[in-house]
Automatic annotation (TrEMBL), chain A:
A single Gene Ontology CC term: nuclear pore outer ring
BP-aspect Gene Ontology terms: mRNA export from nucleus; positive regulation of DNA-templated transcription; protein import into nucleus
Primary residence: nucleus
Protein's organism: Amphiprion ocellaris
InterPro entries: Nucleoporin_Nup85
Family per similarity comment: Belongs to the nucleoporin Nup85 family.
GO MF term list: structural constituent of nuclear pore
Name of the protein in question: Nuclear pore complex protein Nup85
Automatic annotation (TrEMBL), chain B:
Organism of provenance: Amphiprion ocellaris (Clown anemonefish)
Subcellular location: Nucleus
SMART domains membership: WD40 (SM00320)
One cellular-component annotation, GO: nuclear pore outer ring
WD repeats: 207-249, 251-293
Stretches of the chain forming a coiled coil according to its record: none
PROSITE patterns: WD_REPEATS_1, WD_REPEATS_2
Keywords: Nucleus, Repeat, WD repeat
Protein name, per record: Nucleoporin 43
Oxidoreductase listed as a keyword: no
InterPro entries: WD40/YVTN_repeat-like_dom_sf (IPR015943), WD40_repeat_CS (IPR019775), WD40_repeat_dom_sf (IPR036322), WD40_rpt (IPR001680)
C-alpha cells in the first residue's frame, strides 16, 4: 500500500529485491538483467514495518493493560460451575472494552489538540478502527458471552445500539439549551431518535415541551417501561395487547392533527417503510434491525436473529452499495458463526490483538469447538502465538509476549525458546531479567548460553569478577576453569594476583571447578607464606600436587615456590615430604621428556642437594622417627 | 486498595523518585521523577499528583499523576536521584552521568551537567549502574567496577577509584558524609572511606555461603550502622556494619531479584522492598516496648540531631528492632502493596505517606495513604 521512494519503473531494468524479517521486510533496489550478472541499484535499503500499531505510544497502553487482563483471565479456575464463571467472563469482557474505550478517548483528544495534520488524520483513523473493534466486541459479548435469552436479549441489543450512537444526547442537549426547544429544527429528530432507540421516557419528556400532548400517548409509554420485568409469556401477552391499542389509536385518527405524532405512532407499530424513511437518523442497518425487533418482535430468540439481520441489511443497504467488512462481520455474529467472525476480523485488521484476545476469552467460555488447523494447534493457540510473535519484535513489549507464550500449551515453549535468545542484551540488568525468565521455565540451555555470552563479554573487558559471577549463575564449570586460567596467567606474567578481593573471598564458589579450587588454595598458600606460617604453607603446597589439584602445567611454578621453603634455616619439609617433592619433580620431568628445558636439571640437582645436605638428613631422620 | 491506582505510561519505568519536601512544612510530596528503560528513545519525566484536597482533575482519579514535562535521555536510566529541589542526576546505560534541571515555571528540562563515558571499558561503553548524591557531591558506580566522585558544579572529575571491584557494582549509598557503601555481583558489601587516599575498601563484608549478587542497599535513616541489602535470591538481609562479617538477620522476601530496598525516611520501623517477581512488600516491625519512644528514632527525627541518638551509656538500649532477631519471630508484619501480580516492579520511593513505584508493565502506581 505504500509507495517506496526511488524504486520506480522497471523500464531501466530496476527491480525490487526483498528479504523477510521477523516483523518487517527489507527492500532494496536492484538491477536485474535477463542474462548475465545482476547489478545493484541505489544504495538504500528500506525497512517496511508491517505492524505500525505497536509503535504508537497510546496504543501501547492497550497492549499493556490488556496483557494484565489476559493474565488475570488465565487464572480463573476451570472447575467452578459455569454459573459462577459467566459473570466473571462478562466482567472481563467489559474490562477489555473499557481499555479500548480509554485508548479511543485519548486518541480522540490527541487528534483534536495536535497541530500536525498528518498525525491528526492518523489518530482519527485509529479511532475509527477502535470504534469498530469495540462495536464487534460488544456484540460478541452480548450474543456469545452473556448469551442473553429471549427478552433480555433485546434489552442488551438496545444498550449496544445506544452506546454506539451517542450523537443523540448531544443534539438533545443543544435543543434543550435553546430558547424554545419545541421550535428547534432538530426537535422532532431528537424525539424520533429517542423513540428509535427505545428511550421512551426521554422521548416523553421531550414531548412535554410541546403544548399539545395527547393523553393517550402516556398509556403507550407506560407499558413499554415494563419491558423485561416479567416473564416472557406474560410480557408477550401484554405487548400484544399494547400493540393492538396503538394500532387502534392510529386507525381512529387520534393523531391525525399532528403529522409528527402520527409518524411516531407508526414507528411504534414497527412500520418498515416509515422506519426506512428515517435512514439518516438510524445511521446503520443494525440500528434498523434492533429498532424493528423492538417494535415488531421484542421477544425474539437468539436463534431467530439471523433471519431478521439478513433481511434488515438487505432492506437498509441500497442494492448499489457493497457491504463493508464490518457489516459482514456483524452479520456473521448475528448468525452465531463465531469462526467466521474471527476469520473476517483477522483479514480485515492489521494486528492480531483483537482476534487473539477475543478468541482466548471465547475459548475460556468454552464456545469454540476444537478446530484443528493444519499446523496441529487449535485456533486460540494459533492466534495467540501470532500475536505474541509480533510483540516479540518490539524492543520493549517483548516482555509481555512471554506470558502469552506461557499460556499456549503446545507450542508456546518452543516459540519462547527460539525468541528469547534473540533479545539483545545491552546491560547486565536486562540480561538478568531475561535469565530470570529462562530460569523460571527451566530453559537450561538458554540460561547457559546467555550466561556464556555475558561472561565472555566480561572477560573481554577484563572484568574477571563479573565473568565468575556469570559462570556461577550458570554453574558452568568449564568457564570457571577458563577464568581461573586467566588469573593464573596474570600471576605468571606479573608475579602478583590481580583482583584479590575476588580470590580471597571465593567461598563455596571455589568448588565449582577444580581450577578454581586450585586458584583459591594457591592464594591461600601465598597468604600463609606472607604470615610466615611456613609449615602449613609447605603442607598445602605439597598437597596441591599430590592431591592432583594443581594442573600439571603449573607444577614447575609450584616447585619453584618450594625452593625458598627449602632454603630456610629451619627444616620445613619433613623427609617424607621432601621425597614426595622429588617424586613430583620426577613425574614432571618424565612427562615433559621430549620438551624438557634445561631448567629442570638444575632443579633436580638443587632439590637433591638440599635433601642430601647431611645436616638436613640428620634432622629429617630425627623427624621421621 | 482504593487508594492505589495504576497509570499506564507507554514506557517501561526503571526508576521513580519523589522530589524532596522541606521538613519544616511537613507537606506531602507532590512531584516525582521517573526514568524509562529498554525503549528506542528513553525519557526522564516529571509528574505531579497534585496536593491533597485540590479539585479533581477532569473525570480521572483525583491524584492520578499528570505529566509535567519530559526530556529525551540517551540510554536506559539505570539510576536517578534528586540532587536538590530542581536538579536530578541520572546514571545511563551508555556510561554517562547527567544532571538535569527542572524549570518549574516553564515546565521545561535542561541539561545542567553531562559527563559522557564516565564509566567505560577500554573499547566499549560500560553502563553506570548507581548514583547517590549529597549536594553538591555525586558518587557513581558502574559495571566497570569504578567509583567516581563528581561535584555538581565542576566539569571535571573529583576522584576516581579505579578497579574498585572486579565485578559489577550494583548500588551505592552513603554511610556517613565521608563513607560510602557499595554492593557488587559477588555478594560483597564494601565500605569506602574517602578520607583515605588508598584505593582499597576499608572493610569488606559478605555472606558466608553462596556468593549471591546484591542489587540494592539502604542505610537506616537514624542508626548509621544498620544497613539493609537485597539480592538476586530475593532475600532481605539486615547488617550491622560495626559487628562482624555476616548479616544480622536474613529474611525470605521475594521469589526473584530484589531491585530496591528503602527504609522509610522518617519512620524507620517501616521498610519497603520491590522485586522482579512483581510484588512490593511493606515490612513493619514493632519496636521494643521497653525503649522509650524518643530513642527509637522515627517520629521526630527532623528535630533531633545525630548526636542525640547515641547516649553516653552503652549501645544496648538502641538495639533496633531490625537487629533484635525478633524479625523472624512474628513481630514483623509484611503486606503486599500492589493489588495483584504485575510484571517486575523495578523501583519504589516512599516519602511521608506517599509511595510511588514503576513496573515493567509500563505502569506507575501511586499510593497516597501508606499506613506508617
Amino acid at each position: 500500500m505504500y509507495n517506496l521512494p526511488k524504486i520506480t519503473s522497471d523500464l531501466d531494468g530496476k527491480h525490487m529485491g526483498f528479504a523477510w524479517g521477523p516483523g518487517d521486510i527489507l527492500v532494496y533496489e536492484t538491477l536485474h538483467k535477463a542474462s548475465g550478472a545482476s547489478g545493484s541499484g541505489s544504495s538504500f535499503i528500506h525497512e517496511v514495518r508491517k505492524d505500525e500499531d505497536i509503535y504508537s505510544p497510546i496504543l501501547r497502553k492497550l497492549f499493556n493493560e490488556s496483557h494484565h487482563i489476559f493474565v488475570g483471565l488465565q487464572t480463573i479456575r476451570e472447575d467452578l460451575p459455569s454459573k459462577s464463571r459467566k459473570p466473571q467472563f462478562v466482567s472481563i469482557s467489559k474490562n477489555y472494552r473499557s481499555v479500548i474505550r480509554a485508548c479511543m478517548e485519548e486518541l480522540q483528544q490527541v487528534a483534536v489538540s495536535t497541530k500536525d495534520g498528518e498525525a491528526s488524520v492518523c489518530c482519527l483513523f485509529q479511532v475509527s478502527i477502535l470504534l469498530a473493534i469495540e462495536l464487534i466486541w460488544n456484540l460478541c459479548e452480548v450474543l456469545f458471552i452473556d448469551a442473553a435469552p429471549a427478552g433480555s436479549l433485546l434489552l442488551h441489543l438496545l444498550d449496544w445500539v445506544r452506546l454506539h450512537k451517542a450523537d443523540v444526547d448531544e443534539k438533545a442537549r443543544e435543543v434543550l439549551q435553546s430558547d424554545s426547544p419545541a421550535e428547534h429544527r432538530d426537535y422532532w429528530d431528537v424525539v424520533v431518535s429517542y423513540v428509535l432507540q427505545g428511550r421512551l421516557d426521554e422521548a416523553r419528556q421531550m414531548l412535554m415541551k410541546q403544548a399539545t400532548l395527547q393523553p393517550a400517548a402516556r398509556n403507550m409509554y407506560k407499558l413499554m417501561d415494563t419491558l423485561g420485568t416479567q416473564t416472557l409469556t406474560e410480557f408477550d401477552v401484554k405487548w400484544r395487547h399494547w400493540h393492538e391499542e396503538v394500532d387502534r389509536c392510529l386507525q381512529d385518527n387520534s393523531f391525525a392533527s399532528n403529522k409528527h405524532l402520527e409518524i411516531i405512532c407508526k414507528l411504534l407499530l414497527g412500520d418498515e417503510d416509515i422506519l426506512l424513511d428515517h435512514k439518516e437518523l438510524l445511521g446503520t442497518w443494525y440500528h434498523f434491525l434492533v429498532t424493528r425487533l423492538l417494535f415488531c418482535h421484542p421477544t425474539v430468540k437468539p436463534a431467530e436473529l439471523h433471519y431478521y439481520a439478513q433481511s434488515c441489511m438487505t432492506m437498509f443497504l441500497d442494492s448499489r452499495s457493497v457491504p463493508e467488512p464490518l457489516d459482514s462481520i456483524l452479520l456473521a455474529a448475528f448468525e452465531f458463526d463465531i469462526h467466521q467472525v474471527i476469520k473476517d476480523c483477522s483479514i480485515a485488521l492489521n494486528n492480531w490483538w483483537f482476534v487473539a484476545h477475543l478468541t482466548d476469552l471465547l475459548d475460556h467460555c468454552k464456545l469454540l469447538q476444537s478446530h484443528n488447523l493444519h499446523f496441529g494447534s487449535n485456533l486460540r493457540e494459533f492466534l495467540l502465538l501470532e500475536y505474541a510473535s509480533g510483540l516479540f519484535t518490539h524492543h520493549s513489549l517483548w516482555q509481555l509476549a512471554v506470558d502469552y507464550f506461557d499460556h499456549c500449551p503446545e507450542f508456546g515453549r518452543v516459540y519462547l525458546e527460539l525468541q528469547i535468545e534473540r533479545v539483545p542484551l545491552d546491560t547486565e540488568r536486562k540480561a538478568l531479567k531475561v535469565l530470570r525468565i529462562c530460569e523460571q521455565r527451566q530453559m537450561s540451555e538458554q540460561v547457559r548460553s546467555i550466561c556464556k555470552i555475558m561472561a565472555m563479554r566480561a572477560l573481554r573487558n577484563n572484568r574477571l569478577g563479573s565473568a565468575l559471577s556469570w559462570s556461577i549463575r550458570a554453574k558452568d564449570a568449564a568457564f570457571a576453569t577458563l577464568i581461573s586460567e586467566r588469573f593464573l596467567q596474570d600471576y605468571c606474567t606479573r608475579g602478583t594476583f590481580s583482583d584479590l578481593d575476588l580470590i580471597d573471598n571465593l567461598g563455596p564458589a571455589m568448588l565449582l571447578s577444580d581450577r578454581l579450587t586450585f586458584l583459591g588454595k594457591y592464594r591461600e598458600f601465598h597468604k600463609l607464606y606472607e604470615e610466615k606460617r611456613f609449615t602449613e604453607a609447605a603442607k598445602l603446597l605439597l598437597s596441591l600436587m599430590t592431591a592432583k589439584i594443581a594442573p600439571r602445567s603449573f607444577w614447575m611454578t609450584l616447585l619453584t615456590d618450594a625452593l625458598p621453603l627449602l632454603e630456610q634455616k629451619e627444616v620445613i619439609f619433613s623427609a617424607d615430604q621432601t621425597y614426595e617433592l622429588m617424586y613430583c619433580l620426577g613425574e614432571l620431568t618424565s612427562s615433559l621428556n621430549s620438551e624438557a628445558t634445561g631448567t629442570d636439571r638444575p632443579m633436580q640437582v638443587r632439590i637433591s642437594t638440599y635433601s642430601l645436605n647431611p645436616a638436613q638428613i640428620t634432622v629429617c631422620k630425627i623427624k621421621a622417627f | 486498595m482504593e487508594s492505589i491506582n495504576a497509570k499506564y505510561v507507554s514506557q517501561k519505568i526503571s526508576k521513580t523518585r519523589w522530589r524532596p519536601v522541606s521538613h519544616s512544612f511537613l507537606q506531602q510530596p507532590d512531584i516525582f521523577a521517573s526514568g524509562s528503560w529498554d525503549n528506542e528513545h528513553n525519557k526522564i519525566s516529571f509528574w505531579s499528583i497534585g496536593s491533597h484536597g485540590s479539585s479533581a482533575m477532569e473525570d480521572g482519579f483525583e491524584g492520578e499523576p499528570q505529566l509535567l514535562c519530559e526530556q529525551k535521555h540517551d540510554g536506559d536510566v539505570l539510576d536517578l536521584q534528586f540532587l536538590d529541589q530542581d536538579r536530578i542526576v541520572t546514571a545511563s546505560s551508555t556510561g554517562a552521568v547527567t544532571v538535569f534541571r527542572h524549570h518549574q515555571n516553564s515546565q521545561t528540562i535542561s541539561i545542567a551537567q553531562h559527563w559522557a563515558r564516565a564509566h567505560h571499558y577500554p573499547c566499549d561503553n560500560a553502563p553506570c549502574t548507581g548514583v547517590v548524591c549529597s549536594s553538591p557531591e555525586i558518587v557513581t558506580v558502574g559495571e566497570d567496577g569504578r567509583i567516581i566522585v563528581f561535584r555538581a558544579d565542576q566539569e571535571g572529575v573529583v576522584r576516581v577509584i579505579e578497579n574498585a571491584d572486579s565485578s559489577t557494582i550494583h548500588a551505592v549509598t552513603y554511610l556517613r558524609t565521608t563513607e560510602i557503601l557499595t554492593v557488587n555481583s559477588i555478594g560483597q558489601l564494601k565500605l569506602w572511606d574517602f578520607r583515605q587516599q588508598s584505593n582499597s575498601p576499608s572493610q569488606i563484608l559478605s555472606l558466608s555461603g553462596d556468593r549471591v549478587p546484591l542489587h540494592c542497599v539502604d542505610r537506616h535513616p537514624n542508626q548509621q550502622h544498620i544497613v539493609a541489602t537485597g539480592g538476586q535470591d530475593g532475600m532481605l538481609c539486615v547488617w550491622d556494619v560495626r559487628q562482624g562479617n555476616t548479616p544480622f538477620s536474613l529474611m525470605e522476601a521475594h521469589s526473584a531479584e530484589m531491585w530496591e530496598v528503602h527504609f522509610h525516611p522518617t519512620n524507620p520501623d517501616h521498610l519497603f522492598t520491590c522485586s522482579e517477581d512483581g510484588s512490593l512488600l511493606h515490612w513493619e516491625t514493632s519496636s521494643h516496648s521497653e525503649m522509650p519512644s524518643f530513642l527509637q528514632g522515627g517520629r521526630n527525627s527532623s528535630m533531633m540531631s545525630r548526636s542525640a541518638m547515641a547516649p553516653a551509656g552503652g549501645n544496648q538500649s538502641l538495639i533496633s528492632a531490625w537487629l533484635s532477631g525478633d524479625c523472624s519471630k512474628g513481630r514483623l508484619e509484611t503486606s503486599h502493596m500492589l493489588p495483584s501480580q504485575t510484571l517486575s516492579v523495578n523501583s519504589l520511593d516512599v516519602l511521608q505517606q506517599c509511595l510511588v513505584c514503576g513496573t515493567d508493565g509500563e505502569a506507575i502506581f501511586v499510593n497516597r495513604q501508606v499506613p506508617v
